[in-house]
Design brief:
Layout (H helix, E strand, L loop, with lengths): L8 E3 L2 E3 L4 E5 L6 E6 L3 H20 L2 H17 L1 H12 L3 H21 L6 E3 L6 E9 L2 E5 L7 H13 L3 E4 L6 H12 L7 E3 L5 H10 L3 E7 L2 H11 L5 E5 L4 E5 L5 H12 L10 E7 L3 H13 L19 H16 L3 E4 L12 E4 L16 E7 L2 H9 L3 E2 L1 E5 L3 H10 L4 E4 L14 E2 L2 E2 L4 H6 L2 E9 L1
Parallel strand pairs: 7-8, 7-10, 8-9, 10-11, 12-13, 12-18, 13-16, 15-16, 18-19
Antiparallel strand pairs: 1-2, 3-4, 5-6, 6-22, 11-21, 14-15, 17-20
Helix pairs in contact: 2-4, 2-5, 2-6, 3-4, 4-5, 7-8, 9-10
């Protein structure tokens, strides 16, 4: 039995059991992993009050002291890699190799912010009046509410909580009801690292809308950070406006992947596999639309299809599995619908396209996809590659930008001038050139248009949890 599996959440530095609970299901097997507390609104209120009360003493600790504790948290996460990886695979279904990679990636944010927290500098501003001294300092925004999704149960938490903690904020975390165990484990490890009780608390509930409204509207909460769908993000922003909260939103995507005629086709296929099939295509930066130049379309489609056919599907705990299940029936139904719609509008199935047992869906390649297909405009969030042809650079930029979303975009070319031109023309917050992997703790992560507001990672990610205070001193 995994040491982190227990029927409690973690609040005020200890495990907490509620009167009500809900079952947590392994999406690969359908088995119940454990029951998790289903907190009432009143219990969530208590946790918020406790976190608020702890805020003053946590803020008053020196930045270096806070950063030292967060660095200890980093080491404990690292020491527990195998147990955490197994936990993530059990509750999310992702292959064990992906879970291990996520721990390394997610923990890099903890290490980064444990150092970057020491560099939250203010400014000394020249004054036109010799009798005045002008300066700014940065201070913690206050109590933070973080709401995280199921597809990255660890990384979506660490890149919110780590900067909040080093900034001097206390945190109420609401993880997705499908994957709360990793969140609870992280809070336990933070407490073991010496981060005080009430500073990092996890509230678990199936009443996501009601809890989200509570967090967004609560007057003690000064900042809300959300990763999830654009629809929910809009609702939370509207609710947060009632108390003029600081908000950051990492929302939906519809990432284009462009293969120009001069691209290295083998490198492009490798990049496509990396950017599409992590977590069975259930990532916000996952490639959704493949635009391939008409002169290399057949070659790219052939090599991509061969690579996709070689993927091993199964339970993520089994050796060599690369594609796990989809998270639930709703996700499976959407993937099926997108494939069926594309086929009905003339797409050609090269491989996959079928449901297996349970929540598994075969990795799929579709060619000759119509621009009228649903998949051209909606995020699939599954293991489906939809290939479209294009003829000119101007045409493909227009196609890539023809969406309400703008999180990530990718393209492959060996033309240096084109690299600059296209990167600047694409409407996305993050651009991958000749790579399918772009996220890094030192770089800002976030989108434009309806893909969100604010940034995570980098110095900008720390500033999301701080307010600038201007000080004017007369002599």
């Amino acid at each position: 039995m995994n040491k982190f599996i227990r029927p409690q959440t973690f609040i005020d530095g200890k495990y907490y059991t509620a009167a009500q609970s809900f079952d947590l299901i392994n999406p690969a097997t359908g088995d119940v992993i454990t029951a998790v507390p289903n907190l009432s609104i009143a219990e969530c209120e208590q946790a918020i009050q406790g976190a608020h009360n702890a805020g003053l003493s946590w803020r008053q600790r020196s930045t270096y002291a806070r950063c030292e504790l967060v660095q200890k948290w980093h080491l404990l996460i690292q020491e527990n890699t195998e147990a955490l990886a197994e936990l993530m695979t059990l509750e999310s279904g992702k292959p064990l190799a992906d879970s291990r990679a996520e721990i390394s990636y997610g923990n890099s944010f903890v290490s980064w912010f444990a150092e970057e927290g020491k560099r939250a500098y203010g400014q000394t501003i020249p004054s036109a009046n010799p009798n005045l001294r002008l300066m700014t300092i940065q201070q913690a925004v206050g109590l933070v509410a973080a709401i995280t999704p199921w597809n990255f149960p660890l990384a979506m938490i660490t890149r919110k909580v780590a900067p909040a903690l080093v900034a001097g904020c206390t945190v109420i975390l609401k993880p997705a009801s499908q994957t709360p165990l990793t969140a609870i484990a992280l809070a336990q490890l933070a407490f073991e690292a010496g981060i005080p009780a009430h500073v990092f608390n996890v509230i678990t509930s199936t009443e996501s809308a009601a809890v989200g409204e509570l967090l967004a509207k609560h007057d003690l909460i000064r900042k809300i950070s959300f990763t999830g769908s654009t629809g929910v993000g809009k609702t939370l922003m509207e609710q947060a406006a009632s108390t003029i909260k600081k908000v950051s939103m990492e929302l939906g995507g519809n990432a284009p992947f462009i293969v120009f005629e001069d691209a290295d086709i083998d490198a492009a296929v490798k990049g496509a596999m990396a950017g599409k099939f992590r977590n069975s295509g259930q990532t916000c930066v996952s490639i959704n639309r493949f635009y391939v130049h008409e002169t290399v379309y057949s070659a790219f489609a052939e090599k991509l299809t061969a690579a996709v056919k070689a993927l091993k599907v199964g339970n993520g705990l089994e050796e060599g599995v690369q594609i796990g299940p989809l998270i639930n029936q709703k996700g499976l139904k959407k993937v099926r619908a997108h494939v069926e719609d594309a086929l009905s509008k003339g797409a050609v199935l090269q491989t996959g396209g079928t449901s297996l047992h349970g929540l598994f869906f075969t990795p799929t390649v579709l060619t000759e996809v119509s621009s009228e297909a649903i998949i051209a405009s909606e995020e699939t969030f599954g293991p489906v590659c939809a290939l479209f042809k294009f003829a000119t650079e101007e045409e493909v930029i227009a196609l890539a930008n023809h969406t309400d979303f703008g999180l990530a975009a990718y393209f492959f070319t060996q033309d240096v001038a084109r690299s600059y031109r296209v990167a600047e023309a694409l409407e996305a917050g993050m651009i991958g050139i000749n790579t399918g992997l772009l996220s890094n703790a030192a770089a800002p992560f976030g989108g434009v248009k309806q893909s969100g507001i604010g940034r995570e990672g980098s110095l900008l990610g720390l500033q999301e949890y701080m307010e600038v205070k201007y000080i004017c001193q007369g002599l």
